[in-house]
Structures are given as structure tokens and as C-alpha cells.
Amino acid sequence: MALIELTGISKTYHTGQMDHPALDGITIAIEPARLVTFVGPSGSGKTTLLNIIGCMDKPTAGEVRVAGMRTDTLNRRQAAAFRGGHLGFIFQSFNLIPVLSVYENVEYPLIMINPTPAPERRERVLRVLEAVGMTEHRDKRPDQVSGGQKQRVAVARALVTNPQVVLADEPTANLDQKTAQRIIALMRQMRDAFGTTFIFSTHDPRIVEHADEIHTLEDGRLVKENHDATGGAAHA
Amino acid sequence: MRSIFKIAFRNMTRYKRRTILTSLLIILGVTMVVLFSGLAGSVKSMMVGIITDSNLGHLQIHKRGYVSSIDTLPLNLNMNAKGYENATAALERTAGVESFAPRLKLGAVLSNFVESTNVRLTAVDPAKEPLVCPGLASRLVGAPEGTPDSLLEPGQIIIPQKVANGIGIKPGDTVVLVATNRDGSVNGMQFTVSRLIEDIMGPSGKDAYMHIDDARSLLRTEKGEVSEIVLRVNPEADLIHVSKQIENALGEFKNKQDKPAFEVHTWADLSPFANIANMIDLLIITVKIVMIAIVLISVLNVMLMSVFERIREIGTIAAMGTPPVKILALFVAEGFCLGLLGTATGIVLGVAGLLGIKASHVTFSFGRMDNLLLRPDINLTELAIIAAMVLAASALAALQPAWKASRMEPVDALGHV
Known about the structure:
The structure holds two protein chains of two kinds.
Chain A: E1 4-15, E2 18-30, E3 35-39, H1 46-53, E4 61-66, E5 69-70, H2 76-86, E6 87-90, H3 102-113, H4 118-131, H5 147-159, E7 165-169, H6 177-194, E8 197-202, H7 205-208, E9 213-218, E10 221-227
Parallel strand pairs in A: 3-8, 3-9, 6-7, 7-8
Antiparallel strand pairs in A: 1-2, 1-4, 4-5, 9-10
Chain B: H1 2-12, H2 16-56, E1 59-63, H3 81-93, E2 97-111, E3 116-124, H4 129-132, E4 140-141, E5 156-160, H5 161-167, E6 174-180, E7 186-197, E8 208-211, H6 212-219, E9 228-233, H7 239-250, E10 262-266, H8 267-270, H9 273-309, H10 311-319, H11 324-359, E11 363-366, E12 369-373, H12 380-406, H13 410-414
Parallel strand pairs in B: 3-8, 5-7
Antiparallel strand pairs in B: 1-9, 1-10, 2-3, 2-6, 2-9, 4-7, 5-8, 6-7, 11-12
Helix pairs in contact in B: 1-11, 2-9, 2-11, 2-12, 9-11, 9-12, 11-12
């Protein structure tokens, strides 16, 4: 059974008298422990699709199943609980909480979202910080580390709850080429270590080649799918 | 909960200048309220203490109809000996009554053989009166050398200071009192001025004092006749409760119209100062309302700005799965922390101010009373009430912005520019 199943997903935004279709009949199945990218030009519907998978938006039509649960019918509170229990998020602008240290940012989901006993919490935070190579910076505030390091912290924060899926919207857009490559490598490494499925949107072709699956979107439609069972994407 | 407060406190330090300015407003409000409550409350308590301890007592019992005619000191509305006995028997049975004393009130002409003037007199039992009005002795001045400590001896009179100054009487002088009794016959007696007495505000505040036995002789009344019974209530007893108990106990005694024979009045019923005391209470409440308004507006303002500036951050934590109720708690806790900081500092400054005023021995005048020492004080209960009000107002003010934050859709919040 697929980890994520999207069936006939459509999304239309209504602005005044105008309808703006963002997604049109998307059907995808994503298996566990995959590195999946959605590529396409701006406005192609990548972010909307990620938001729907991430239970932050609802499709106008179609059905969404994540980890066996129908998620397009959840209310706000249920959706928040589902996100906290099953999903992790990485943002383009890192979105770390500036008043918390690196350690506290990673610890945040284990306090506020999935309350975890202190000894286990500490063990898990230190484990993911070590995995992303940020242990020595644990006491620094976000404004005291570089952009690449911030995104490493964001990856650690997304992984600390052991989510089945991590969603990343343009995670490398604010990073230079070298740092972006490192972050993608880190995601692959985490996929292998924790069995997590990473789904990210990008239009940067230089990092796409590291994905297991590449789904190309244009005008809200899925126009191409490339799969590589060995862990690297096959070029179309 | 600890983590929520930790994050809330850290968020307060994010915009230090704004936090300091808001806290200063709250500190100002709390300090103002503590100072005002301490000063006004103490002045009120002191004035009530002066009035009750040196003149009115806590409660008074009269024959029905006496108080409404008190300006004429109606002798025909005095209690007879039987009535006094009935009333005192009821008082003996009432819990909370510490002591009581009889008084006979009359009007008379006072003469020093050169000039004369009208005076109101309160005739007291010198053994019992200090028990109901322990502050009376402190109003007495000008006792000649060798005057005994007792309040009054038979044949002595205490004259109001201003009356004495007006017609040139001093302690040791001989004066004559001429009074008309209830039958209309006139009688005169000679007295020695033992002391003078300072005026205080309120009814009977400018009365002369004489021995109750002398008054009965002067008026040729029956033994045991009194105009009023003055009571002192135990400090731990509730005045109104004791008053009701006495009313119930005296309720069995009826007059010829089958109505209660006695009336019970608290000091507040008898003294116009009760209205001033109520005004002081009203002023304290007004100042507290102003303080709450300051807290509400300043915390609401700062929290609205805080939410507006952190929309993307709210979107981030909401996207990660933070339950809406915890987002709400984060912002309410932030408002609460702002209030806590202001309250703690304000209370410290306010109490320090009160102690400073106390230490500087400031005196003031009230009515005809001069050199009253200002002794501001505030009790822990009052401080706790002020703190609770500010903290509740802070949390309440933060509630609307917090609610707004908790209702944000993560998609919209993350897309906010």
C-alpha cells in the first residue's frame, strides 16, 4: 500500500467572479522511504500540491490518503494533530524560531506538539542534531549560524518526531549551489537512516537529479513522471 | 506549561524597547493604585477610627424616633430606666459586643458669670465611657497639675476648646449650667472646668462632657434615664452582623404602636463622614478602573503588534502541528508575563513609596483637626487583589490577539509578506 495516495485531485481558487484552477486531476501514489520532487515553473501548482499533502489545504475535488488516513476531510484541529503526528516540514526561509537556540528549536515539536518525557526528548534531539552535524552549534541562536546551518536545523526539527513524510517547499532556494547539494545529500542520508519519505518542490534542475522520483507539473497538470528504483532519478 | 511560559518570556525579550515601554505603563498604573489605595485607605481608616474611638462608638441604640429628632436633643425621647435595663440585658446576651455605655444628652446655657453661650452636652458614665470610646482621652487638653487620670468626677465639666476660647474659660474655672427639663422647669448648677476638649468632625464632635449623675440632677430626671447606649464591637466581629443580631434581640420590645421600641444605628448611619468614606472607596475603585484600562490598552496594543509581526512564525508552528489551543496559550502567556513584570515592579515601587511617606512623618489637616500624622499602609489582601486584577486584565487583553493567532490558517500565514 502506498504511503501517499492522491486520486483525482483538483483545486480551484475563487477570486471575486474569477476561478483560477491550480490543480487539475492529479493522481499519484508515493511509496515509503522515497525522495520525491515536484518540479515545474512558478504557478504550476507545486506548492498547492504540497499544501494538500501536508493537510494545510483542501482539494476542491478528489481524495487524499496519507499513511492510510483520509486527510482531505479532517477539520482544523484534526489536521493539526495529524501534521504533528505524521508529517515534518522544511521551509524555504528555514522559519526557525528566533528566540530559541538551535537545540530548543529542534526540541520544540517534542514539547509543544508531541509531548515527550525529558530524557527521551534529550536523546532524540541530540541524535538528530548529530545526524545533521549541528551538535557543536546547539546553544547558538538562529541568527548566529549560516543559512546552510539553519536549513540543517530545520531538517533536524522536521525529523525529530520521526515523521513518515517530510514536506519541503523549495528547501534550497535560499542556499548556494554547494550548500543546496549538501542539504539534498542530507535528506537522502536521513531517508536511508530513518526511512522517511521526503517530498520537495523545486525548479532547480541541479538538485533534481538526486531524487528517486520526479513529477513534473505544468498548469496544474502532471505532465511527466520519472522513477528510479535504485535511488537516483532516471532522466526523461 | 513551563515551556509555554519560557517561550512567552523569550518572546517578550524580542522587542526590548516595546516591552520596557509597555511595562513602564503598567508599572506606573500599579504604583499609582498601590500608593493611592495605601494613602486614601489609611486616611479613611484613621478618620473612621478617630470618629468611632473618640466620639460615636461603633453602634448606638436609641429609643425609636430619637435620631430623627436628634438636632433638638429631645428629652421626651430618652429611654427610661426600664428600657435601659431591657436593652442592656439584650446586649449582655449578644456575641460580638465588647462593651457598652449609657449617655444622656442635653442642651444648656453655659455661663462664666460674665458671658454665656449655648452648649450641647454629652453626659457620660466615666467608668464605662473610655471602654466604648478609648480615644476620647486623647482629645482632652489643658488639665491643671494634679488632675486625676479619671475622665470626670462629679461636679466637673469638660468644655470644648473653641467654646472655652470664645468666652474666656480655662481649666480650673467655675461655670454655671442652666438647663430646661422635659417639664419646662429650669434648673442651674455650678461646675468646675476640669479640662478642655478638641473638636472633631461629625455629630457630637463639639459637645461638652459632664458626669451622667450630674446631668440627671440638673434635669431632675429619674435614675437610669438615658438618651443613647453606645457600643464597641469586638475587632474580629462583623459590625453589620452584630448590628443585625442586636436588632433581632431588641425586636421583642415594642412601643405603644406595636413597633420596635429601639433603633440600632452604626457609626456610618450617624456620621456624615460615611459619605466621604464612600467617596474615598469610589475614588479608589475609579483609580483601579483607570489602571485596568491602562493595562488592557497597552497589553492589547503590544500583543496585536506582536501577532501581526509574527504571522509567518505562527504559520510555521501551526504547520508543524502545534494545536491551536497551545498557540493561544503562548500569546496569552506572553500578555500575562508582561502584566506579571509590571505588577511585581509596580507593587515593589508602590510599597516602597508608602514606606517612604510613612518614614517622612507627613502631617495633614482634616476639617478642624490639625497635625494628623499620615501613616499609609496597605495590607497583603489588597496587594493580592491589585495583582490579580492586573494579571487578569493582562491575560484578557492578550486573549483577542491570541485567539486571532490560534485561528490562522497555516497556508495563509506562511504566505504572509
